[in-house]
Prior knowledge:
The complex is a heterodimer. Chain A has strands at 4-7, 10-13, 19-25, 31-37, 43-51, 54-57, 64-66, 76-78, 87-94, 105-106, 110-114. Chain A is mainly beta. In chain A, strands 2, 4, 5, 6, 9, 10 and 11 form a seven-stranded mixed beta sheet that branches. In chain A, strands 1-3-8-7 form a four-stranded antiparallel beta sheet, with no helix packed on it. The mean pLDDT of chain A is 92. Chain B is mostly beta strands. Helix content of chain B is 0%, strand content 59%. In chain B, a hairpin with a 4-residue loop joins strand 7 (61-66) and strand 8. The model of chain B has no long low-confidence stretch (mean pLDDT 92). At the A-B interface, strand 5, strand 9 and strand 10 of A face strand 4, strand 5 and strand 9 of B.
Amino acid sequence: DGGITQSPKYLFRKEGQNVTLSCEQNLNHDAMYWYRQDPGQGLRLIYYSQIVNDFQKGDIAEGYSVSREKKESFPLTVTSAQKNPTAFYLCASSTHRVGGEDTQYFGPGTRLTVL
Amino acid sequence: SQQGEEDPQALSIQEGENATMNCSYKTSINNLQWYRQNSGRGLVHLILIRSNEREKHSGRLRVTLDTSKKSSSLLITASRAADTASYFCAIRNTGGFKTIFGAGTRLFVKA
Lengths: 115, 111
């Protein structure tokens, strides 16, 4: 059963704490992405990775960090430096086609709330 | 902004009616995609239309692309209550890697 999974579904964090959101895919995709979605808004790109051991900042990378040690995994850490982290976080993967067709497959999302 | 901008922001229709959503963008694109998101869930890819295509169909979905006007439309025919969701257009710029999502149209289909 191929797909992309995210955990946990809901996450609560106290101010000043770092938290890590998990994203795993078994689609054999090279590229992986993290997006942030605020209520009633579209998706904003946080980080993306085109290949293992490589990643680039997206449009809103400040206060976030990622790693890509395995093809299947792309965890996102929300650090205490992120001033307003309460949001819905979506992970996606796709085949790596620069300038070409590139359908993204999304996980179910993690809703992070800062208490 | 390079992102696609959907219009309207929200749409409420009766079951059985057609729903039309529009997307405008500003750059030269390689392709344009439409995604659907049910409340609190991830996005699901619906359809992709290449820059050299003008119209594409998939079941009850019809997508058009007018590159001269930098716009696309998504038509859902004979809508059902289960079509209630947010619909996003996403553009892939020519030569680019990132896919840029718009803010979405929220569709509500009343039974």
